[in-house]
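Give me the fold.
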Amino acid sequence: MSRLGARMRASAAAAGERVPPWVSVTLGVVCTVVGAVLLLRPFASLALLVVAVVVGAVVVGITELVGGRSPDRGEDPGAPQGPRWPHVARGLVFLALAVAVVVWPAPSIVVVAVLVGVGLVVAGVLDGVEGIRSAGVDRWTRLALGAASVVLGVLALVWPDVTVLVVAVVFGVRVVVLGVRLAVAGIRRARAQAGPPGASYTAVPDGAGGAPAAPGPPGPRRHGRVALVGAVLAVVAAGGLATVSVGLHRAAPQVDAFYDPPASAPGEPGRLLRAEPFTREIPDGATAWRILYTTTRDEGEPAVASGIVVVPDAVDADADAPPVIAWAHGTTGYARGCAPSVLAEPFESGAFFLLDDVLAHGWALVATDYVGLGTDGPHPYLVGQGEARSVLDAVRAARELDGAALGEQTVVWGHSQGGHAALWTGAVAPEYAPDVPLAGVAALAPASDLTGLVSHLENVAGGSVFASFVVEAYDAIYPDSGAAGYVRPGARFIVREMASRCLSEPGALVSVAEALSMDQPLWTTDPTAGPLGERLAENVPTGPVAAPLLVAQGASDTLILPTAQEAYVGARCAAGQPVDYRTYQGRDHVGLVQADSPLAPDLVRWTEARLAGEPPTPTCAAG
């Protein structure tokens, strides 16, 4: 498969000739056990990956140095041996690799991948040089294996976040193969040494060790053909991996020039800067635009954000302009390309499944991307003021669209991250945007208790991905929080890599695999304590919401825990905030807001009542 594996296989024969049988058997058993565990649980432990790399590299390095001659002698076992220096060079490379991994402070997965990549490239080049000096089948075998090794090494160096786990699995397979061959070689040597007097031991160039001499076996010729087939398969595997890696990176969403702000922009928030027709996933009977508009960051500095506006075409000319549903989307990622208006599924990527219901009731939709998604960051992920201002200013800017008459009534809907944004929107609207009166606020599975959520994420499969978004956002927006310093040093690079991917892109699978591979806690310090904890507490939405407030929660939600939501609602009720709190049995985090959820008709009826001016019926009232 990999060039490293071929070198392990080729070196086993030489090791069998130079070391005592019991040493070969012991090394073989160790390699087999380490490689097998890594293979069966490739994402379970970074420490295990480090051990496997070190053990494999040490064994390969020693066998190269001890062997001192080419074990692949082509068709003629008696042919002159090739030069010793390529073996010495390869042995030193792999021993240096092992030492580098050991002495590197808290090596991360990416560090291991880079070091392995260097070893693969150097070994591949040396194998190519040796192939040029060889002849016949051996030449093509070595050149093919060298090419495969170089390709794998370059991939590990250029894109370690995509290829590292594949490299780990390949390394695990090859360590197992090397271990089995070393053990078999040692056992055969022991048997040969204990055999009848006069029996001689000869090296077998297939890398399986040695056996008593036998007259006229066709092994070398057969081995040459098998080795060439294996080399070709290695090239095919490396090419396939390269294709997959390129495909993953090309699939990452990219923004276009629409999201670049103009050279000069108004300082006033809520002004429309740019608009153009938007057709992706827009149903018949509706017209849509993507918009670029001014807003402000959490600290009050001017910023630019983007969004989508959708209006129904069938509006009675004598009727009032359609009311607005201001949608605050759920988590799509932290990177700039993760804006819903950029993604292939602009609504479902942010967990919005009710566009048809909105349009069928004659309502318009204004959906912000938030600052930093689409436009320049940082993105205020779970930072209340920045999220809320993006929501309110999107509604203001949408009113300036040519061809879209929007009514004054606005109801805010938001899910997950967007539920957090919706609660903050309801709190800041009266002061920040009195020209956007809210008829209601619906927060659906909102990330309301930030301190509890962040401490809970490590208990959620893949929760470290969401934690990476929090770390990057708070580190950028609140430098005083020292958010990055709360992360274990060996995981900081992984956190940055996770935050660079969107949840809907194929590369997110790498993020999940990296999260599952962590064998130590993400945090070195309790994230709910100290300056980061203070900043998280500041962004818990505890401000009063003057508009009627609906909070909905799935009873089977494992990300936003129902117990935490109930405690939050209880605290708001105790503070005098009227809340209509509803729970839905059997619904998890995303299932709560899907089109077939019992929440969907409830949300529509609740919104109709708010737009009709009916008094709300909260489950707890102001006291």
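The radius of gyration is 31 Å.
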